[in-house]
Design brief:
Elements: H1 3-41, H2 49-78, H3 86-114
Helix pairs in contact: 1-2, 1-3, 2-3
């Protein structure tokens, strides 16, 4: 292998490592958010049950996508295959769902503080 080819391979591995760490971080944020929602919901009895379930589903979907992305990276590196296109979907959709879920919960929780 030439020096340029070796640098390209090393850069690709660095990108995969960075993406794997990103998915681990997102997974942790999603789990902490789910725990926070479940802890705060116990004290706020005025929240509609369907809205709480919607928040949990959105945050759970973000956690599932971020965990799936990390798992996909591990699977492709173990098999020495290139990353699939599903990684891009997980990379884009997981933080969007996390943001939407946290935003939904903040809105619902702030409504209980006003009452």
């Amino acid at each position: 292998m030439t020096e340029i080819e070796e640098e390209l391979v090393e850069a690709a591995q660095d990108a995969e490592t960075l993406l794997y760490d990103y998915f681990k971080h997102l997974t942790s944020l999603c789990i902490v958010s789910l725990g926070g929602v479940l802890a705060l919901v116990q004290n706020a009895k005025d929240l509609p049950r369907a809205a709480i379930i919607a928040v949990l589903v959105v945050l759970g979907s973000a956690a599932l996508l971020s965990f799936t992305g990390a798992g996909e990276i591990v699977r492709t590196r173990y098999r020495r295959q290139p990353l699939g296109k599903s990684i891009d979907f997980c990379r884009i959709a997981a933080p969007i769902l996390l943001s939407v879920g946290v935003g939904m919960f903040i809105y619902l929780f702030s409504r209980t503080l006003q009452a």
